[in-house]
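Input record (one chain):
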Amino acid sequence: MSHIQTALADGTMKPERKRALDFARFMQARFFMALILASGPMFAQEMPEQVSPERARANFARPVVLAADDVRAFPDAPAGFDAPRTGKIQGRVEVFEYDSTVTGVKRKVVVYLPPNYSSENKYPVLYLLHGIAGNEWEWSGYVHADAIVDNLIAAGKATPMIVVMPNGRALADDRPPAPDRTYSPQNAEGFSKFERDLFDCLIPAIQAKYSASTNRADRALAGLSMGGGQALNFGLKHLDTFAWVGGFSPAPNTQPPAELVPDPAAAREQLKLLYLSCGNQDGLINISQGVHVYLKQHNVPHIWNVDDHGHDAETWGSNLYDFAQRLFIAGKPK
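The corresponding structure, as predicted from the sequence alone:
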């Protein structure tokens, strides 16, 4: 065992060193994903036991075929939209630990609190889920979600909200795996198990710790890539819990559209907003296209935004910018 492995095992490694190692693993996995993007038909929903590097290569390499309505709903976010403000009152980011009956260990979640957060107020909550190679820091460190939301709130373009960024890999060891194990059944299984962790453990813990509204209309769920699939799978299945759902570049873990929305009438009645996006350079776009076509055929209102990006932080940040502005407002946003 190396000195690094020893320090991790006995808990003597300094927190900042551990975060650096986790980030290094995350960036290695991103590099591995980039290699996959460079490589050769897409399948129906992939179950965890079917996940493999070979299938991932085939998924990302699928030719992009655009329909007439696969177009932008919004322009890209303006320059500086994701840059932290200086010299002004800002929200804050903190790490919170909660007990998980699913994993049997305490789990960490990154939480953004809006400017002038006060226990005197009740805040709506947006839960943001990361991709297959990420962890609880991906939305903050890679996409800059906290800065995006903070800037929108400061500009009066978004409702002050709490943003919860959990680790969507519900395993006892929930660190991003080594690049050669990113697309493995074991890693994918953790994302499937997160459904129970989210509803049974995380949401109750957030509501106990923070001044969070418990109303369904004040709760949103969104995610990118693997987390986009989770958000659609979990959010649309639990319309009694979430009124606002967003899937950004959802991955092959996304359930078939007829399973996502088996009762279109209920979706029309209960959803405040269903937001779906993908880049026109992304080989996974057929997943989003299938969902969009089904929703359109069944008259389920939704936003469909196809931008000019690939499977990357640019599309996820820009779509969060548009999505967050439409959350927690009266009526149904446009």
